[in-house]
Model the fold of this input.
Amino acid sequence: MPLPVVEVKYEGQELYSPYSGKRVETANGPNTRDSTLLFVHYGDACDYAYINNRVRKILETKRLKNLEQLSPATLAKRLDIEGGFVLRVDAGWNGINQYGFAPPPQKG
Done:
């Protein structure tokens, strides 16, 4: 099942992962240490700032390459992660940014 997309308007400074409680952004960019953050796409730049390895592995099994060329909507349709979703944030003058989240991967 594709990841559902939740749309909000938010011009605040900080977003947090609903699964880990960690900040999505750090002083150095996306929080790449948070396993619940699937991807970050900045609408004003029309580019992914981050795609985690979990997403890359899923899409490789589907034989999809050039992940950076997929739109966030297409990416969401290609991912089937239980509990996952995309947060589509209208950030005002900063454009529309999109963040993928999912529960942490099961170990074992």
